[in-house]
Design brief:
mainly beta, five-stranded mixed β-sheet, 1 helix, about 30% strand, binds FE2/S2 (inorganic) cluster
């Protein structure tokens, strides 16, 4: 079994969460970046406006829907971070594009 050395530090990448730079371990998800940023919510439910944050971190609950690099309605827990990635809150229901 392979293990990381105790003194090893993972490489990090800088992403923007709501315009604020956040350092995230390379290979982590955009949802992890949202949680590291300490936002109170990444989206609101379309019906009640209830705030949501990533919950399951495995693509089941859809509480992590966010706008990533200008594309709305993405499951942030399924998207690995990339340098310079822009993650923004999603408000209400997705807007259908023609
Ligand atoms: S956190 Fe549950 S689907 Fe992304």
């Amino acid at each position: 079994m392979f293990r990381a050395r105790p003194d090893a530090r993972p490489a990090t990448v800088e992403v923007l969460v709501e315009g604020v730079p956040v350092m995230v371990p390379q290979g982590a998800s955009a949802a992890a970046a949202v949680l590291l940023a300490g936002l109170p919510a990444i989206r609101e439910t379309p019906v009640t406006g209830s705030p949501r944050l990533p919950l399951c971190m495995m693509g089941v609950c859809f509480d992590c829907l966010a706008e990533i690099d200008g594309v709305p309605n993405r499951q942030a827990c399924m998207v690995p971070v990339a340098p310079g990635m822009r993650i923004a809150r999603q408000h209400g229901a997705r807007v259908a594009r023609p």
